[in-house]
Amino acid sequence: MIKTDALIIGAGPVGLFVVQQLGLIGLKAEVVDNLDKIGGQCIELYPDKPIYDIPALPECTGESLTESLLEQIKPFKTNFHLGQRVEEISKEKNNWKIVTSKKNIFSAPNIIIAAGVGSFEPRKFQIKEAEKFENNGIFYSIKDKTLFKNKKICIFGGGDSALDWAIELSKIANVTLVHRRNEFRGAEHSSEVVKKLEKEGKLKIKTPFQINSIEGNNKINSITIKNEKGEIEKIPTDCILGFFGLIMKLGPIAEWGLNLDKKTIPVNTENFQTNKEGIFAIGDICSYPGKLKLILCGFHEGALAARACFKLARPNEKYRFEFTTTSKSMQERLGIKKK
Ligand SMILES: Cc1cc2nc3c(=O)[nH]c(=O)nc-3n(C[C@H](O)[C@H](O)[C@H](O)COP(=O)(O)OP(=O)(O)OC[C@H]3O[C@@H](n4cnc5c(N)ncnc54)[C@H](O)[C@@H]3O)c2cc1C
């Protein structure tokens, strides 16, 4: 069991900034995210896109904003628990017990839900055999590419992930790229590279085809693919990779007894607490009259929620408002040495 002052659900920009706001007032935080990387929508959906409305940063990208936020919270040495979803929360005396999909357990007086639009989950194959082979031959992301060495792999999809992995894995495995359209959606350059590799005999391309069946008992032996004319081809296969993009699901958050308004969590704007004491919601996931789904609004919401967390984490201490420029304790926490 990991004890902390605040458990943050979501490592998007708003979850990252609230770590700093908590750290400044002496509160420890642990962060859990379903994705295997930090940055939420900024990293998952638009790492290279310019952002022009972050205060005092005339221009940044999703990636550079994430890097700067991480730099800003470095002094607080925060633990990130990635690749796991917060599944259950329950009250135990004065603390919340939080359990993740990897069975990590946290105990905290405060939970800050900065879960954006919910967890990003891969779109999956729609045929019935696919579930049986998930993580045993069928994968929707790659953590260790060496697992695919010398294997016969079918990669499905026409976007950047499918093209990038087809190019990368063609160096170590026997790759067939299957897409339901003749044209790929991914970057033009990647699309050209894939076609060049096909000409050189380094990978195979099958378009316009979709998956039709998967054959095998304990492991995949082969698949069949089908085109619009109904023509079927069989391909000996060890592994199947599906890259069809992500869907966003509120997921288990809907089962925690919180008031919900469509897919958002209503909060009061005094401290961003939900209908449950000690559970706060900030960023895209929260709603209140006038809410704007902008990063800068999430930063403000985090600043107020952090102060409210102090009351529950340090019930016997009085919170004092201070500026970083004049507060000795804040500067110590930031590791700033006085000249
Ligand atoms: C294409 C695009 C362009 C945009 N451009 C701008 C812009 O220019 N300026 C601007 O201000 N805003 C912009 N936005 C909006 C901005 O990205 C969001 O407002 C911001 O990402 C919200 O941050 P967040 O931290 O609240 O949530 P998110 O960034 O969505 O992060 C939430 C995180 O929570 C995780 N999570 C969810 N549920 C769970 C769970 N149960 N357990 C564990 N983890 C969970 C998710 O995996 C995710 O990583 C843009 C959005 C898009 C899609």
Please specify the SSE layout and strand pairing.
Elements (H helix, E strand, L loop, with lengths): L1 E2 L2 E4 L3 H12 L4 E4 L7 H5 L5 E2 L8 E2 H12 L5 E3 L4 E7 L2 E6 L4 E4 L1 E4 L5 E4 L6 H4 L5 E2 L12 E5 L3 H10 L4 E5 L9 H12 L4 E3 L2 E8 L3 E8 L4 E5 L2 E4 L3 E4 L15 E2 L12 E3 L4 E2 L7 H19 L14 H6 L6
Helix pairs in contact: 1-3, 1-7, 5-6
Bound molecules: flavin-adenine dinucleotide (FAD).
Structure described in brief:
β2, α1 (13-24) and β3 form a beta-alpha-beta unit. The chain has helices at 13-24, 40-44, 62-73, 129-132, 160-169, 188-199, 295-313, 328-333; strands at 2-3, 6-9, 29-32, 50-51, 60-61, 79-81, 86-92, 95-100, 105-108, 110-113, 119-122, 138-139, 152-156, 174-178, 204-206, 209-216, 220-227, 232-236, 239-242, 246-249, 265-266, 279-281, 286-287. By secondary structure, it is an alpha/beta fold.
Overview of this protein structure:
This protein is 24% helix and 27% strand. With 339 residues, the protein is α/β, with parallel strands linked by helices. The chain folds into two domains: 2-121 and 247-333, FAD/NAD(P)-binding domain (3-Layer(bba) Sandwich); 124-244, FAD/NAD(P)-binding domain, CATH 3.50.50.60. Helix 1 (13-24) packs parallel to helix 3 (62-73) and helix 1 (13-24) packs across helix 7 (295-313). 36% of the residues are buried. The model has no long low-confidence stretch (mean pLDDT 94). Flavin-adenine dinucleotide is lined by residues 9-15, 32-35, 40-42, 45-46, 49, 51, 53, 85-86, 114-120, 251-253, 283-284, 293-296, 298.
